[in-house]
């Protein structure tokens, strides 16, 4: 069966520090991968999605970036965090065929920028 | 008009009640529809897909009205464990690479 791992679960970082969040998927190949952010009391905002290695689409301008160095690995990064980067970051994957319509989420990383 | 709109709630209902949520979407070309459930401080999880003819899964019934561009979720015989935020989700085209669009969710509290 497929599983998705995200870490760390919680993170407290000072303003201006770098960020690296990692997400890996097991049990499937060539998944679509997604990064979302959910700010307190707000909906899910799609940040990036990837349909293959090295292929990244950015949905909103920001000081975050994403990379996909391997088929089942998706990394969210920042060189300098802002206070407004605080939120709940969720990685998701979707499969192939009709399964590409359904996304499955990792447990998320709760980031507090202070 | 927002792509996917939901009443944020909260809906506070007693155990055993029937409760219904609606969701409207703006893109008439939307082809796939889902309800996700999100517990407090947890990730969203797929509750059910929504099919054109409507579908039922136990106490949950989902309906789609393409003409009016809305989706509904009906929960019968509410349980305390149904307390969560319910996210309406829409996908524009059946192309696999089109991202999903999530509503902000409707919060349900089932009270003993």
Describe the structure in brief.
With 114 residues, chain A is mainly β. Chain A has no helices and 11 strands.
Care to describe what's here?
The complex is a heterodimer of chains A (114) and B (112). With 114 residues, chain A is mostly beta strands. The radius of gyration of chain A is 13 Å and the shape is globular. In chain A, strands 2, 4, 5, 6, 9, 10 and 11 form a 7-stranded mixed sheet that branches. The relative contact order of chain A is 0.32. Chain A contains no helices and 11 strands. In chain A, strand 5 (44-52) and strand 6 (55-58) form a beta hairpin. With 112 residues, chain B is mainly beta. Chain B is 0% helix and 54% strand. In chain B, a hairpin with a 4-residue loop joins strand 7 (60-65) and strand 8. The mean pLDDT of chain B is 92. The A-B interface holds A 32, 34, 42-44, 46, 49, 51, 59, 88, 90, 94, 96-97, 100-108, 110 and B 32, 34, 41-46, 49, 87, 91, 94, 96-97, 99-100, 102-105.
Which ranges of chain B are low-confidence, i.e. pLDDT below 50, for 5 or more consecutive residues? Answer: none
Structural class label of chain B: mainly beta
Total number of beta strands of chain A: 11
Distance between the termini of chain B: 37 Å
| Residues in β-strands, percent of chain A | over 45%
Radius of gyration of chain B: 14 Å
Radius of gyration of chain A: 13 Å
Given the structure, what is the number of helices of chain A?
Answer: 0
Strand content of chain B: over 45%
Largest sheet of chain A: 7 strands, mixed
H-E order of chain A: EEEEEEEEEEE
Query: Tell me about the biggest sheet of chain B?
Result: 6 strands, mixed
Count of DSSP helices of chain B?
0
Helix content of chain A: under 10%
The most extensive interface, with participating residues per chain, is: A-B, 24 and 20 residues
Instruction: Estimate the global geometry of chain A from the Cα principal axes.
Output: globular
Average residue-wise pLDDT of chain A: 91
Distance between the termini of chain A: 38 Å
Task: Tell me which oligomeric state these chains represent.
Answer: heterodimer
């Amino acid at each position: 069966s497929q599983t998705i791992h995200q870490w760390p679960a919680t993170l407290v970082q000072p303003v201006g520090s770098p960020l690296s969040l990692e997400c890996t998927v097991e049990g499937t190949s060539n998944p679509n991968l997604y990064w979302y952010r959910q700010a307190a009391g707000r909906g899910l905002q799609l940040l990036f999605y990837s349909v293959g290695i090295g292929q990244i689409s950015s949905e909103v301008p920001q000081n975050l970036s994403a990379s996909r160095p391997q088929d089942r690995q998706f990394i969210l990064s920042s060189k300098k965090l802002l206070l407004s980067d605080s939120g709940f970051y969720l990685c998701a994957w979707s499969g192939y065929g009709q399964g590409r319509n359904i996304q499955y989420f990792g447990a998320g990383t709760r980031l507090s920028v202070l | 008009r927002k792509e996917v709109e939901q009443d944020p709630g909260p809906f506070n209902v007693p155990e055993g009640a029937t409760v219904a949520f609606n969701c409207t979407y703006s893109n008439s070309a939307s082809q796939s529809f889902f309800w996700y459930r999100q517990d407090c401080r947890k990730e969203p999880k797929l509750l059910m897909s929504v099919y054109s003819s409507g579908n039922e899964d136990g106490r949950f019934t989902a309906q789609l009205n393409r003409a009016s561009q809305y989706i509904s979720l009906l929960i019968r015989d509410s349980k305390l464990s149904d307390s969560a935020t319910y996210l309406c989700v829409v996908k524009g085209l059946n192309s696999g690479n089109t991202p999903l669009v999530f509503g902000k969710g409707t919060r349900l509290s089932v009270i003993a």
